[in-house]
């Protein structure tokens, strides 16, 4: 794919919702429902650089784009607006009516911009996608759900898929292929223009927080320039100088279909609104649509609490993947919720 320089100025939905900054900088807000959103600014050349980088290293030639990612977020703006505009190819904004089968031109090389919920829709409309010459799925926002790995196996060689690790603050950091069902996950590999802050990667096998630097870090609102580096909150274990595996997060942050959720705040909300119940929220990686989610364990029916009360208390949060009622929340000898026992109690 040849990516031509994009015209300076605001981009799609984001531009209509917020004006560009000096020099045509583009505003994006962190996608948090559990904290105060913060605005970050990206220069047009940063957008063009990321599109060209991903197109060159992962995508190859593309004739048509089907975009399931709302362009008010960076991922959707980059690959659902900026890429098709700069490459001069048509785009179907499937996020507007995601349940409808998308138009797929015959014999086209199609890029699908995916969120976790997209994969079940791809499976449902597989006969439509089979009209294409090839399909490349680009996934971001959270861990791919099991449906992604099943479909990559089922639809090969028509379909190949790549996963991007990144954020509003950093842009894309690393990539890896979405492996077919039954195969081990590949390690993440840093994109060529991303460097590690400090002295480089820790010794192989040692877990550490991923702190990155590079020319695509965004500028926070109120600042005159981007930060020199950014701590991602991801805990990683390096397998090679520029390759790693994720082993967790340094805090209680997860992403549910691209929306950040701090589980500590979920616990706070439940404790405040349902003081007569015991409630614990834990990460959950088995969500069939979202890939990454959370499960709420609760006990309190004797106190007059029921599942509807739990859902109502979390009405401003992404919906839990599971809500599990228990007779009592198991606890360790120190009085803390017993995470291992709780996750064993979660349904498959």
Structure characterization notes:
The protein has helices at residues 12-17, 44-59, 74-87, 118-124, 126-129, 146-154, 263-273, 307-313, 339-345, and strands spanning 26-29, 39-42, 64-67, 91-93, 109-114, 134-139, 159-167, 171-177, 188-190, 195-196, 207-213, 219-220, 230-240, 243-249, 253-256, 259-262, 278-287, 291-299, 322-325. It is globular. It is built from nine helices and 19 strands. It has an eleven-stranded mixed β-sheet with strand order 4-3-5-6-7-8-9-14-13-11-10, with helices on one face. The chain has two domains: 12-249, ANL, N-terminal domain (Rossmann fold); 253-345, ANL, C-terminal domain (GMP Synthetase, Chain A, domain 3), CATH 3.30.300.30. Strand 15 (253-256) and strand 16 (259-262) form a beta hairpin. With 348 residues, it is an alpha/beta fold.
